[in-house]
Write a structure and sequence with these properties.
Elements lengths: L1 E3 L5 H12 L5 E3 L7 H7 L7 E3 L5 E3 L1 H11 L11 H30 L7 H24 L10 H17 L9 H10 L3 H5 L11
Parallel strand pairs: 1-2
Antiparallel strand pairs: 1-3, 3-4
């Protein structure tokens, strides 16, 4: 199996760390959707990261679907989800919030770094920032009210939350204040020292500034 994409993408990094935690063997290829567009297109014409190339050549997309496939077909029944209904419910909520935070962070970056300043739409950017802050407020609340979901062994909720936080802080720290999110700050500091996180650091060119 081959994981295609740069680790500065939170979605690619999420897949890499989760596959590592599941003991699923794979190779990683650092191919950028920006700098290596033509090469990426030879692997996946959609040019979407992450892309996951199965042993039979089938290419999967979307981090959640890749990980669903990995747990169903590759992990020898290992899972990063809770088996308890209420905990599972809140893990799903936490992952959803973390992925929303990643999406809104990326939208804000695209608006400010890729669109010419004269074409930037400030009401749209304000809306995206509002959604971003709401996602992190909800995620911080989950951390404060249900710390047991994020402590102990790696799971989908803790991995997604820590990766999202690192990504947003690397690009939008002035927008999402660390002082308002002490739980996420502590979680990120702890998990970034975990061996699986250290093996898959957030390296790469990122979104190119104009």
């Amino acid at each position: 199996m081959r994981l295609i994409g740069m680790l500065d993408s939170p979605y690619v990094r999420r897949v890499a760390i989760c596959l590592d935690a599941l003991s699923v063997e794979f190779t990683h290829e650092s191919v950028s959707v920006f700098n290596h567009f033509d090469h990426f297109r030879t692997i996946n014409p959609v040019v979407k990261a992450p892309s996951f190339v199965c042993d039979d050549g089938t290419v999967l997309m979307d981090s959640s679907l890749i990980l669903q496939y990995a747990e169903a077909a590759l992990s020898d029944d290992r899972t990063l989800w809770s088996g308890e209904t209420i905990q599972l419910e809140h893990q799903y909520r936490a992952v959803g919030l973390a992925l929303a935070a990643c999406e809104k962070s990326a939208q804000a970056i695209y608006e400010t770094n890729l669109r010419p300043s004269e074409k930037q739409h400030q009401p749209w950017l304000a809306r995206v920032h509002g959604q971003l802050l709401a996602a992190y407020a909800g995620l911080e609340q989950e951390l404060q009210q249900r710390p047991q979901l994020f402590n102990g062994a790696l799971n989908h909720a803790s991995i997604a939350a820590a990766i999202a936080w690192q990504f947003t802080q690397s690009v939008l720290a002035p927008v999402v204040k660390a002082s308002a999110h002490p739980g996420l700050v502590a979680l990120s500091a702890r998990l970034e020292q975990h061996p699986a996180f250290l093996r898959w650091p957030p390296t790469g060119p990122g979104v190119q500034a104009r």
